[in-house]
Specification:
The structure is a homodimer.
Chain A lengths: L1 H8 L7 H9 L3 E4 L4 E3 L8 E6 L2 E7 L2 E8 L4 E2 L2 H5 L6 E4 L3 E6 L1 H10 L1 H26 L3 H11 L1 H6 L2 H7 L4 H16 L1
Antiparallel strand pairs in A: 1-8, 2-7, 3-6, 3-8, 4-5, 4-7
Chain B binds a DNA duplex (30 and 30 nucleotides) through helix 9.
Chain lengths: ~190, ~190
DNA sequence: TAAAAACGTTCACTTAAGTTAAGAAATGAC
DNA sequence: GTCATTTCTTAACTTAAGTGAACGTTTTTA
């Protein structure tokens, strides 16, 4: 399990055995059952999440309805808004599948950064990279129709369509579950002819 | 002009006079006329932009049409995707108004980071904060209708509606210019009754 | 394992965005 | 200042998403 993490990190910086041991000794690998809620809207928390295995999602409850807006799978990190701005969370976080996470917090990070400045560089690079990726993602969302967004998802994250239920995917695509059903039927119809 | 920058930075970290001078001596303050193109799609560049005064936008050209997806105004930073992933840019960047920018590049940053590690901390914090903000932004976009998005923009960035032309705002809201016109007329009609 | 809840699909209807086109208004170039 | 271009608005029509409801299926859970 840890090897997955170190393979991932090695794409960005190289770690000494000392540094690897420092990470392991933090002892923050945790397992959760599918459906577990990691954070509720309105709560404050300092926990950041890094997905080693499985899938978690963020969702809002608006007018009594769940609106899933993001999924995080293997080697993806989520630092909840409430950790950054020290305000109550606007959204829920829960496990789509049985999931293994690394859970971090700012104090822990600060200690690691001062002991191994390299980690701060890693975090900076990861944050910058994510920011750029996410901007392009958002751009694609804005400039395409629901149907194009679905086809795009099918290309880019085909696993998600298997792993997450339709109604969660629908709000992730910015539409209603019924519209996703219809849209898929429409695509099948087109390909048939 | 520099005071604006230092006031902004002081919200995150405190700088010594030495550090402030180091920034000034980088001598990267640049002025541009409205309409100036800073980066073209397909080009490679290492320039990052920080807006001191004015407004810049990113836009794609899709099927011959400009699709504006983001605006950056005072104290906002844009590191183009192509700087991060060393690939040709997917979008254009140009000035919506006469604009004063700080232009950075990775080599310059690396030098500053090694001389003053504090700057890397600043950049990490800024990137993390932006990432969290942007996620919430995207979430709001996904969970609301074009009309709600327009009303939301009116609340959160009223200046943008004055500063940018309608057709750029339209694609920023994920709709066509005609739809934005209609939607605004609809809102006026509602408030009249 | 049986009942209840949640989920996915389909349908008919409503609403709003996309499209095409035309004309008025604003802006920029000369 | 005038002409040309771009921008904004309006309108009629098309297309697709939202809505409310029904129904079969799957998943929970008691």
């Amino acid at each position: 399990m840890q090897d997955l993490l170190f393979d991932f990190i090695s794409k960005y910086i190289s770690l000494t055995d000392d540094e690897k041991n420092a990470i392991i000794s933090l002892d923050t690998f945790r397992s959760f059952k599918k459906g577990t809620t990691l954070l509720k809207a309105g709560q404050k928390s300092n926990d950041g999440f890094f997905v080693l295995k499985g899938c978690i999602r963020t969702y809002y409850v608006i007018g009594g309805e769940e609106k899933t807006t993001a999924f995080y799978t293997e080697m993806e990190a989520l630092t909840p808004n409430c950790v950054i701005n020290k305000a109550p969370s606007e959204y829920y976080i829960s496990c789509v599948e049985d999931t293994i996470l690394i859970i971090s917090n700012p104090d822990m990070e600060a200690e690691m950064f001062s002991k191994f400045p390299k980690f701060e560089t890693l975090c900076r690079i990861l944050a910058e990279e994510l920011l750029a990726k996410q901007q392009v993602n958002f751009d694609e969302f804005k400039t395409s129709s629901p149907e194009q967004r679905y086809l795009n998802l099918l290309q880019k994250r085909p696993d998600l369509i298997q792993r997450a239920p339709q109604h969660q995917l629908a709000s992730y695509l910015g539409i209603k579950p019924q519209s996703l059903s219809r849209l898929r039927a429409r695509i099948l119809e087109k390909n048939k002819v």
